[in-house]
Amino acid sequence: AGKLLKKVPTGRVTPVSGKTVVMFxxxxxxxxxxxxxxxxxxxxxxxxxxxxxxxxxxxxxVITHENIVAELAIVTTWLNMRRGKEIILSGFPYFxxxxxxxxxxxxxxxxxxxxxxNPRDTRHIIKEMKTYRPTILVNVPSLYMMxxxxxxxxxxxxxxLDFCLxxxxxxxxxxxxxxxxxxxxxxxxxxxxxTEVSSLATMNPRGGLRKLGSVGVPLPNTLVKLVDLDSGxxxxxVDREGEILVSGPQVMKRYLNRPDETSHAxxxxxxxxxLHTGDIGxxxxxxxxxxxxxxxxxxxxxxxxxFSREVEEKLYELPWIEFCAIVGVPxxxxxxxxxVKLVVQPRQMDAQRGARELESEVLSFCRExxxxxxxxxxVEFVDNIPLTSVGKVDKKALR
Length: 399
Prior knowledge:
Layout: H1 2-6, H2 24-28, E1 45-50, E2 60-64, H3 65-78, E3 87-90, H4 97-109, E4 112-114, H5 122-132, E5 136-139, H6 141-148, H7 151-154, E6 163-166, H8 173-183, E7 188-194, E8 199-203, E9 217-218, E10 223-227, E11 242-247, E12 254-255, H9 259-265, E13 266-269, E14 272-283, E15 289-294, E16 299-301, E17 304-306, H10 308-315, E18 321-330, E19 338-346, H11 355-369, E20 378-381, H12 395-398
Parallel strand pairs: 3-4, 3-5, 5-6, 6-7, 19-20
Antiparallel strand pairs: 1-2, 2-12, 7-8, 8-9, 10-11, 11-14, 13-14, 14-15, 16-17, 18-19
Helix pairs in contact: 3-4
């Protein structure tokens, strides 16, 4: 604090022509000291948080006081977070629902939060981790992967780290295993959520049964079901693909000034209001959910469904792939269908091998592991795959 005070300008204040300077204390004296008497009901609007807009224009999500309080109570209880004792580090910005919920949660339990102004500055993050030794990490998969590429990260002491949360995009299972070999087995908890559920809807249990590659089970007081992709109503069976629907006290009230999109997203089935997430997943016999794809990222290849995440997950088994993305390119010969395109960012040390050699290797791998209609017809290599502001692969830009 002393160092910061020395940076505050001092000396005589010179009036600026045409500007009126008012003393702050004089302004305060013009208003009463008492708080205004305002009745706040649980269903009242609390805030408007905009979606990321990864598949279209951002939408203003109206979140109520009940939504926020319920989400904070559910998540902090599920994770058994210790009041006044946690030290949290996250690369999520506050304009993202995860960053906002984390900031509110930090105050809710009296935790300390290490602020990260630039989540791509991995060396600064490592320096902060070494200084403050956080008990909780919360990041997107791409940031964890970038940290693992830094030698300094692997040398850190993780004995005080209780767990890591990961959300917002798929995390390759091979990379998950590598991360746990560094931070400690059992510390990685994948979860699933979105702006429309005030942050999170599912998570792997802390200290209980976990399944790598799964986003866990529904959180307390939260209902999740999977429905047929065509009807949008009939529930699918175990281990079958379906759209993920969520109901619970954390589900948004509406989209701001978008009644049509609100009615499409929030629908009543059997007397319960469900949020249609647009995400495709599978639920196993134990209730664990695996995200398969976003409905808008799913490809239609000659009438066959291609789930981009399924292909990407397998491709990450190739050790020279840093990041990759499967996107659909309109097929001019078959209107309404897609051509499979693969965009790859090779690891720096492998990029010198040349695009032709790498393309031959990746296509051979695809032919050995996928049905013919899933094999990419176009392969593009890039130095840096585009990422969104929170570190997710930006498929909208790739299209």
